[in-house]
Amino acid sequence: MSKADGTKAETLKPRLPRGFLDRRADELAAQARMLETIRSTFELYGFEALETPFVEYTEALGKFLPDLDRPNEGVFSFQDDDESWLSLRYDLTAPLARFVAENFDALPKPYRSFRAGYVFRNEKPGPGRFRQFMQFDADIVGAASVAADAETCMLMADTLDRLGLAGQYVVKVNNRKVLDGVLEACGLAGDDKAGQRLTALRAIDKLDRLGVEGVRLLLGPGRKDESGDFTKGAGLADAAIDRIVAYVSFQAAPSDGGDRLAFWESFFGSWHDVVGNSEIGREGIAELHAIMRLCAAGGYESDRIRPDPSVVRGLEYYTGPVYEADLTFSVKNADGQPIRIGAIASGGRYDGLVGRFRTEPVPATGFSVGVSRLFSALQLVKSPLLDGAEKPGPVVVLVLDRENVADYQRLVAALRAENIRAELYLGGAGMKAQMKYADRRRAPVAIIQGSNERAAGEVQVKDLIAGAEAARSIASNAEWKAARPAQFSCPEAEMVARVREVLGRHFSGTTG
After folding, report:
1. Residue 130, class by beta-carbon neighbours within 10 Å (0-12 exposed, 13-18 middle, 19+ buried)?
2. How many C-alpha atoms does 57 have within 13 Å on its Cβ side?
3. Which end of the chain has the lower number of beta carbons within 10 A, N or C?
4. Is 216 exposed, middle or buried (0-12, 13-18, 19+ CB in 10 A)?
5. For residue 167, is it left (φ>0), alpha (ψ between -120 and 50) or beta?
6. Distance separating alpha carbons of residues 364 and 355, to the nearest angstrom
7. What is the rounded average pLDDT of the residues 235-261?
8. Residue 80: DSSP 8-state
9. What is the assigned CATH class of domain 25-387?
10. More confident residue, 368 or 381
């Protein structure tokens, strides 16, 4: 393209913004099958669909976000015409809290809802870390009982079972109150110890990756990694470190068919020593015990749902039980090294979030499925759920006489009227290029009508699938012309029926 003065016009370079993805039809169709399985499982538990907008007032997104003086830090924000700050939603939980508070009197309580949609993070992208990604959430608002948390854990397990991951995951459950109790017993209560508490929590969260000795170092003086970088520790005394390590070392062995309730009685009885006299810690243990009793009563063994002290969860709004579903198998990276996928769903109780909008407390609990990570996991295990039947492309009606486009449009309309996917070739190329276009569109059939066919009231129906199969066995061009494989003439009035016959031979249960 040139300007009037003869110089070449500057063209834009097509660039995908960092941290965002394009996805095509096959991947979208496979993901849709996965999402439908999740949706049907959530509905089985009595949850109903809800959709909230992509944009919320920044102040409504919660205290877990960065300081409002820097609203673009961590979230994508902009000012409205009235100078109010708006932000793209950071997750699906804060918008739910706003919706419930705004419609509180009209909603049944407890209110069970699920939402699926994209969320946005204004953070530095990296491998597997995107600025736009999809979540699928299920929440129960208005239920203070830990029976709601138990239901949530059971829903996580059933969802993964129905996705074909039975025996390849574990739902890990902890309680922020127990963590608070352990830290309180270690002398870390009070606002002046907030920094040490945060460092200790971050150390606990690295147990899976660093092991007990690595956590010990991070709870104490600090740790130097393989590259030589040093991470400053929490600086706790040995007695406090021993108490925390004793806590994170508790593991529930899978049930061997014995008395499950007696097992949990003994298991949680041993936790009381690590929380000492902390009232909040003992309350958290009692809640965890109740959750496991309810899960056991529902038939969920500890190889599917079990307590795990290493589960911390980062967001500030969690106030009680926290949980995450971890995949237990590993896969190999590009270098052939085994790597774990880790958590593909997580959540917890957030009793204070809805209450920010109301004078009375509103209890709530729920979890979020990381759709992209879960989809990748299902791809790695070659889940048949993602395969599905390959959807054929549209029937392509070729345009051989430009002055008679209306006649070709009539043929397309006849196919569409009978629920057969069809399209009119809209380019300017000749017949050979149009046939190549039909192949690229994965068209099963091409409709051809030249002037002779039009005069006779006929069309040529070309079975492109059978033609491709025949072409592999035909040696010469002369042989090809003599055979004219998989191509036949029929009256226009029979076109729809003959196309349907061709589609029926190749695709069961579909008309195109």
Report:
1. middle
2. 10
3. N
4. buried
5. left
6. 10
7. 77
8. -
9. alpha beta
10. 368
Tokens representing 94 are 């804060």
- The amino acid sitting at 436 is K
Element (H, E) at 222: strand 222-224
Average predicted confidence (pLDDT) for the chain? 86
Task: Measure the CA–CA gap between 185 and 252, rounded to whole angstroms.
Answer: 23
Query: Of the ranges 22-31, 328-337, 343-352, 495-504, which one carries the lowest mean pLDDT score?
Result: 328-337
Judged against a pLDDT cut of 50, whether residue 66 lies above it is answered with: no
Element of type H or E holding 175: strand 169-175
Nearest one of 377, 378, 354, 322 to 153, comparing CA atoms: 322
Q: Which two tokens stand for residue 494?
A: 């029979």
Cα–Cα dist 95/264, whole Å: 37
Could you identify the residue written with the tokens 């500057």?
10
| Pair 38, 159: CB distance under 8 Å | yes
Beta bridge partners of 171: 305, 325
Q: Domain residue spans in the chain?
A: 25-387, 395-506
- In the prediction, which pLDDT does 478 show? 58
User: What phi and psi values does residue 435 have, to the nearest 5 degrees?
Assistant: -65, -40
Residue 446: strand pairing partners: 396, 462
Assign 387 a pLDDT band (cuts: 50, 70, 90).
Answer: confident
Tokens of 442: 């994965």
Measure the CA–CA gap between 318 and 254, rounded to whole angstroms.
Answer: 27
Helices marked H in 175-278 — which ranges? 176-185, 194-205, 207-219, 238-248, 260-269, 272-275
Count of residues in the chain: 512
- Tokens 């070392």: give the residue: 249
- Percent above pLDDT 90 for the chain: 50
List the 458-463 sheet strands across, edge first. Answer: 422-424, 395-397, 445-448, 458-463, 487-491
Cα 509 to Cα 51: distance, rounded to the nearest angstrom: 32
Concatenating the DSSP letter of every residue in 334-349 gives TTS-EEEEEEEEEEEE
Higher pLDDT, residue 269 or 321: 321
Q: Degrees (nearest 5) of the Cα angle 428, 432, 438? A: 80
Query: Residue 241: which of 278, 283, 203, 206 has the closest Cα?
Result: 203
CB 317 within 8 A of CB 332: no
Helix (H) or strand (E) holding 311: none
**What number of other Cβ atoms are within 10 A of residue 33's Cβ?**
14
Flag the least confident range among 72-81, 140-149, 163-172, 247-256.
247-256
Q: Which helix (H) or strand (E) holds 456?
A: helix 451-456
Q: What is the architecture of the domain spanning 395-506?
A: 3-Layer(aba) Sandwich (3.40)
* The one-letter amino acid at 416: R
Displacement of CA 180 from its chain's centroid (Å): 31
